[in-house]
TrEMBL record:
Principal localisation: endoplasmic reticulum
Name of the protein: TLC domain-containing protein
Coiled-coil zones: none
Species of provenance: Helicoverpa armigera
InterPro entries: HD, Homeodomain-like_sf, Lag1/Lac1-like, TLC-dom
Gene that produces this protein: HaOG209743
SUPFAM superfamilies xref list: Homeodomain-like
Keyword vocabulary terms for this entry: Endoplasmic reticulum, Lipid metabolism, Membrane, Transferase, Transmembrane, Transmembrane helix
Subcellular location: Endoplasmic reticulum membrane; Nucleus
Keyword Ligase belongs to the record: no
Bilayer topology: Multi-pass membrane protein
Transmembrane segments: 41-58, 179-198, 205-224, 262-282, 302-330
Low complexity biased stretches: 340-360
Highest taxon above the source species: Eukaryota
Catalytic activity, reaction form: sphinganine + octadecanoyl-CoA = N-(octadecanoyl)-sphinganine + CoA + H(+)
């Protein structure tokens, strides 16, 4: 029975172009080119735990000390007094509802309830140093991965002529550098998906979760179907803007306001240029319009292209949020809020730990 369902799932009519079989693109010494091995799609999962370990070591022994050197505090909020009854109610619903009725039930004043609730919510907040370390780690990875990706793709013909992503498909060879680029990128997104449940919980938690899953599915689909050429272009385009996304946050937590403002301006230019410009009007246009002209379509390709469009929807949502923050920045005179997070509530909360910007003061650091 299991074999029957597996055969149905891996139906060649679904996953491959017409008149192509799995045997045609299976790797082997007798083949003219090196094909992707579908079993390698699982390699990034154990590698993701290596990334989590590397991240832990870097954050603890390099990034956190550097953040402390910059003057970032690792202070933790005061803990709420021990109250099992209130703790049970808080865990069932972190939002305080009907404080007057609750105060009467527990024989406490309404003010005592509100004060306890405020302290209890505050103790869940991570310190500024923790948030800085998380963003700095991502800056390091995205910078290194973008540099590696650019170096890897520089001599590849499809970087300069996107039609080469389809010409000759699916008989397109795989090189070692592309293999590593795919494995490293997929492992990183697996690590983000896993660590997201204990990292700083931001307002766009579920959008980011969908983004990570969609990216992993895109990488997996493109790997299995030997569509790695277009996949590498998607990776390169995303890493470019993400460097600035995380840099803005890190500089904000470090209170380097002028650097933050400059990076934010660069982010707007790079983000709109890549995510709202190149991505839909060059890359998705190519996958939707040019690809059907150059190769026969098959069901898995439509799934692949739908995932690309799903990423575009997320890009549009985040672009709107970034433009909202830019509008606030123009009015306030500085970058405020947290990139890719809802600007409707710029203050910290226990489950939405975006760092609101204090007003300018003479003590603020400038670069």
């Amino acid at each position: 029975m299991l074999r029957y369902f597996l055969d149905k799932f891996w139906n060649e009519d679904v996953w491959l172009p017409p008149n192509t079989t799995w045997a045609d693109i299976a790797p082997g010494p007798d083949k003219a080119v090196v094909y992707t091995d579908h079993t390698h799609v699982f390699y990034p999962i154990p590698l993701a735990f290596v990334f989590i370990l590397v991240r832990y070591v870097l954050e603890r022994f390099v990034i956190a000390p550097f953040g402390t050197y910059l003057g970032i505090k690792n202070t933790k909020p005061r803990r709420a007094p021990n109250n099992p009854k209130l703790e049970k109610i808080y865990k069932s619903s972190p939002k305080l509802k009907e404080p007057a009725a609750l105060a009467k039930k527990l024989e406490l004043s309404e003010r005592e309830i509100q004060r306890w609730w405020r302290l209890r919510r505050g103790q869940d907040k991570p310190s500024t140093l923790v948030k800085f370390s998380e963003n700095a780690w991502k800056v390091v990875f995205y910078t290194c991965n973008f540099t590696f990706g650019l170096y890897t793709l520089w001599d590849k013909e499809w970087l300069w002529d996107i039609d080469q992503c389809y010409i000759g498909y699916p008989h397109q060879g795989l090189t070692n550098d592309i293999w590593w680029y795919y494995m490293i990128s997929a492992a990183f997104y697996w690590s983000l998906t896993i660590s997201q449940f204990w990292d700083v919980r931001r307002k766009d938690f579920w959008q980011m979760f969908v983004h990570h899953i969609a990216t992993i599915l895109l990488l997996s689909f493109s790997w299995v179907c030997n569509l790695h050429r277009i996949g590498t272009l998607v990776l390169l385009l995303h890493d470019c803007a993400d460097i600035f996304v995380e840099s803005v946050k890190a500089s904000k937590y470090a209170k380097y306001q002028k650097l933050c403002d400059a990076l934010f301006l660069m982010l707007i230019v790079v983000w709109i240029g890549t995510r709202v410009g190149i991505y839909p009007f060059y890359l998705i246009w190519s996958t939707s319009i040019r690809a059907p002209m150059l190769l026969p379509m098959f069901p898995a390709y439509y799934i692949f292209n739908s995932l690309l469009c799903l990423l575009l929807v997320l890009h549009i949502v985040w672009t709107w949020l970034i433009l909202q923050i830019a509008y606030v920045a123009i009015k306030a005179g500085q970058m405020d809020g947290d990139i890719r997070s809802s600007s409707s509530d710029l203050s910290d909360s226990p489950h939405n730990s975006n760092h609101s910007s204090p007003t300018r003061s003479k003590s603020r650091k400038d670069t």
